[in-house]
Amino acid sequence: MHTRPVLDAADVRVMMLAARTEAERIDLEVSIAVVDEAGVLLALERLDGARLHTPEAAWLKARTASITRSATATLQEQADAHPAMLAFPGRLPLAGGMPLVHEGVVVGGVGSSGGSPEQDLAVCRAVLEGFAALQERRGDQPDRARERVL
Q1: Buried-most residue among 58, 73, 76, 93 (CB within 10 A)?
Q2: pLDDT of residue 140
Q3: What pTM, to 2 d.p., does this model score?
């Protein structure tokens, strides 16, 4: 039998708070999504003023990052070179999605939509930092895989 880490509700609350705090700090009107390792939505928030399409885009970015185990900015570069990648349903290879990694295992993804690519990435990085701080408080092993994602 194998065991693997999974996100729990407390993890998701900490990550959503980190995302919302960063978005408000830099005055963004974005939507933020957190998904599990299969891309299933765990939390979604559309901040005041965020445009109508942003919740779905945030979810798709988070889902894409989780199921491909890659930052969506990297996938965007690949899609620019190979446009056929855009034909895969349920994926959005645009900057603003990052996988969530715990002890070398992808446990989910985060996505932000509504800002510039750099702003959406700043929100995602805040989530990764909040998740890392949560792991450290719990005494989890440092996550070397996270260094490659950032």
Answers
A1: 58
A2: 62
A3: 0.86
